[in-house]
């Protein structure tokens, strides 16, 4: 039997009541602080422990020196203990990116020379010398050459080139600045791969507002935001990096942090297609790759010889490193990418890479790209005056 039609006034009252309840519910929701919200997943899923890498691995992106402590302390204060942890995790070698000018010899003595084959230290140069004109550029070239003679395994370029370094007119200097061309050519001639940290995640260049997926991280670290600071956009920096690689085909470039754009694997893959002298490392991008596991696995399969594993875990944390093994080796779904997911509110899933890709990503690609890891160590020459 048909139900009697509801009186219009009662329908209006019912809708009004619903709206009032919705408003009250939203008001209650707004009283909860997002910073304290830590939802616990109700998913019941298998969890695979992977305490060791499937093959002896090379961590191609890490920090063991004194650069990031302001020169005060070694990030690996106990080298024998570090080696023991490496053995437990099946890590054969680590690339140390902390060979700053004036500190390169100390890093080489502590790591590369003391433990041949286990460490490979990359050197830095003093980019601010570009403000000295042609004489400054010549100094940079000499620093590259001296680093190679000393036994450095590569050249590290940090994000200050493009975001902080200025020339004699006060203008920001981008990585593809023609004035720096001789420096990158010198690295190629010396057989040094150049690892470039270009920019930062794209969210760091956007307004720090409710639309920013890394709002909480940037709220905790407001100095990490580049928005409104008069620097190039994320896209402009990526274009500068692309131009840099294209302008120096005789130099091997390692695009750190998945070439600066792990959120856009199509762009990175296209760059790899354009530039045979480019490879990428995965440093500090577990959360980004793990939240797009099918796309990430397809990206690696498309470029099996161009992706190098790096943890960027410093001080060296065995638990953080082992999370990489779970992401790369298993098909586990929807798990936290850290003890406290501090980059964004998402989970990660395993890429489930096959054995041949794991061998390439973990070790084979790094040993091909970094000559110092491919064979016996070179006899170093001290050139302290130039360093």
Automatic annotation (TrEMBL):
Gene Ontology MF, one: hydrolase activity
Positions of the Amidohydrolase-related domain: 82-370
Cellular component aspect of the GO annotation: cytoplasm
GO annotation terms (biological process): secondary metabolic process
InterPro entries, per the entry: ACMSD (IPR032465), Amidohydro-rel (IPR006680), Metal_Hydrolase (IPR032466)
Keywords: Hydrolase, Lyase
Protein name: Putative TIM-barrel fold metal-dependent hydrolase
Species assigned in the record: Kineococcus radiotolerans
């Amino acid at each position: 039997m048909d139900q009697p039609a509801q009186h219009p006034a009662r329908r209006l009252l019912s809708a009004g009541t619903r709206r009032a309840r919705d408003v009250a519910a939203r008001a209650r929701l707004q009283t909860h602080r997002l910073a304290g919200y830590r939802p616990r997943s109700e998913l019941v899923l298998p969890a695979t422990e992977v305490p060791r890498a499937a093959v002896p691995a090379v961590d191609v992106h890490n920090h063991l020196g004194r650069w990031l402590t302001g020169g005060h302390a070694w990030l690996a204060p106990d080298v024998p203990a570090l080696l023991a942890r490496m053995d437990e995790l099946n890590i054969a070698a680590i690339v140390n990116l902390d060979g700053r000018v004036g500190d390169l010899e100390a890093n080489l003595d502590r790591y590369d020379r003391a433990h041949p084959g286990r460490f490979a230290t990359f050197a830095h140069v003093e980019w601010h010398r570009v403000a000295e004109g042609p004489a400054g550029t010549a100094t940079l070239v000499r620093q590259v050459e001296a680093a190679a003679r000393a036994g450095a395994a590569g050249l590290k370029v940090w994000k200050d080139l493009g975001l902080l370094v200025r020339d004699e007119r006060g203008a920001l200097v981008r990585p593809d600045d023609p004035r720096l061309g001789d420096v990158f050519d010198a690295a190629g001639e010396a057989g040094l791969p150049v690892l470039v940290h270009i920019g930062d995640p794209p969210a760091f260049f956007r307004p720090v507002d409710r639309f920013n997926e890394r709002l909480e991280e940037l709220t905790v670290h407001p100095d990490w935001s580049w928005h409104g600071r008069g620097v190039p956009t994320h896209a402009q920096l990526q274009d500068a990096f692309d131009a840099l690689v294209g302008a120096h085909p005789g130099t091997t470039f390692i695009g750190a942090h998945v070439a600066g754009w792990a959120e856009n694997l199509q762009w990175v893959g296209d760059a790899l297609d354009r530039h045979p002298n480019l490879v990428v490392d995965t440093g500090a991008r577990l959360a980004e790759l793990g939240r797009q596991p099918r796309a990430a696995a397809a990206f690696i399969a498309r470029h099996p010889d161009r992706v190098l594993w790096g943890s960027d875990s410093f001080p060296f944390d065995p638990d953080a490193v082992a999370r990489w093994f779970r992401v790369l080796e298993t098909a586990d779904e929807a798990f936290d990418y850290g003890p406290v997911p501090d980059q964004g509110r998402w989970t990660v899933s395993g890429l489930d890479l096959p054995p041949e890709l794991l061998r390439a990503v973990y070790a084979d690609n790094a040993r091909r790209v970094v000559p110092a890891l491919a064979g016996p160590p070179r006899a170093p020459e001290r050139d302290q005056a130039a360093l």
